[in-house]
Design brief:
The chain is an alpha+beta fold and 352 residues long. The strands form four sheets. Strands 1, 2, 3, 4, 5 and 6 form a six-stranded mixed beta sheet that branches. It has a four-stranded antiparallel beta sheet with strand order 12-11-13-14. It is 36% helix and 24% strand.
Length: 352
């Protein structure tokens, strides 16, 4: 299904507004739309909202045999899927050219710049390495997919933890996430993409984070991948608009500032998630709490219920619950006396 194109009146209005320095949503020329980062319960799960654009990223890993030409390096793969519910032009089982282009940009920004140390993914040289896979799904297309996908991929990698591995001689032990604290990926630097929409006959006007309608009237786009160290990791230009050296340098200066802002927001979100996870660590239950749970369970399982003829199943269930609840206080009192009578034997267990 094809998208409905903009009418000529809409195109003329957008072009005149952008030439005058005004945008449809009231943003400034170099402003991003509102960005929201939501980390999931599982490690490596991140949902990014950039205005109306929504992207979901999930990182996973498995143990594989390394390629012969790189026996001491792990593998990293990025996969971008444009969901059919994101836009009418996205079809099931068919990757459009836009999806292939976005995936290549992300690979150039993150993989070819060696943001993640692949040698740290090696378990046993030539035999076992970690293969890390980042799956990015576009949930809603509201414009500027490149920046949202790159931010989701990087955030997912930073949030992900791989199982801890012990290698003793020829024996390899991969611990579960519950038995040992998992290990983060070794990330050298954090490339982030900043995209510009180019407007005018020769692309003389540029705006950051073009929306869906702005992309429709743009004569070209420029994507710069940079990190906080002012290093350019990738440059991608699409469209026939030409850029002078001065225009490119100006866009780079703006992109450095915007990349720093994105990096700071991502770092704040990661710290907030770590703080929330540390607060959710369950406190070991006390002996009294454990005994209450056992006594309550025992009282409910042993309570006798008198069935009254003429009542339906709902009344029987209510009578059973009431009888069990009535039996709990007596069992709890007896169990508590027994607990405190033998409490001195468990005083050194370390539970609070």
């Amino acid at each position: 299904m094809k998208e409905v194109p903009l009418s000529q009146n809409e195109r003329d209005f957008l072009e005149q507004s952008l030439a005058a320095g005004a945008r449809l949503d009231g943003r400034g020329q170099y402003d991003f739309r509102g960005i929201e980062l939501h980390f999931g319960k599982d490690r490596g799960h991140l949902e990014v909202s950039l205005g109306e654009t929504k992207v979901l990223a999930q990182t996973s890993c498995e143990v594989v045999e390394p390629p012969a030409h790189r026996p001491t390096e792990g593998l990293i793969r990025y996969s971008v899927e444009l969901s059919p519910m994101a836009a009418p032009s996205f079809e099931v089982g068919r990757q459009p050219l836009q999806g292939v282009e976005i995936q290549r940009i992300v690979e150039r920004a993150l993989k070819e710049s060696r943001a993640v140390e692949t040698e740290s993914l090696c378990i046993v040289a030539g035999e076992k390495v970690w293969a890390v896979r980042v799956d990015i799904t576009v949930l809603d297309h509201g414009g500027n997919l490149v920046d949202a996908v790159a931010l989701a991929a990087l955030g997912s990698l930073l949030h992900f933890r791989k199982p801890h591995v012990d290698v003793i001689g020829s024996e390899v032990t991969i611990h579960t996430l519950q038995s040992h604290v998992p290990d983060p990926l070794s990330v050298h630097h954090r490339p982030l993409c900043v995209s510009f929409g180019l407007f005018g006959a020769a692309g003389e006007a540029a705006v950051v984070d073009p929306g869906l309608k702005e992309e429709a009237v743009a004569v070209g786009t420029l994507t710069l991948a940079l990190n906080v160290h002012r290093e350019v990791c990738a440059i991608h230009k699409l469209g026939g608009a030409t850029l002078s050296a001065d225009q490119l340098l100006e866009c780079m200066e703006i992109a450095h500032v915007k990349a720093g802002e994105l990096a700071a927001q991502l770092e704040d979100a990661l710290k907030a998630d770590e703080a929330a996870r540390s607060n959710e660590v369950a406190r070991p239950p006390s002996l009294l709490e454990l005994s209450k749970q056992r006594i309550t369970a025992a009282a409910r399982s042993t309570a006798e219920v008198e069935m009254v003829p003429g009542y339906d199943d709902g009344h029987h269930a209510a009578a059973a619950t009431a009888a069990a609840d009535a039996a709990v206080p007596m069992a709890l009192a007896d169990g508590a006396a027994e607990l405190f009578a033998g409490g001195s034997a468990n005083s050194g267990s370390g539970w609070n």
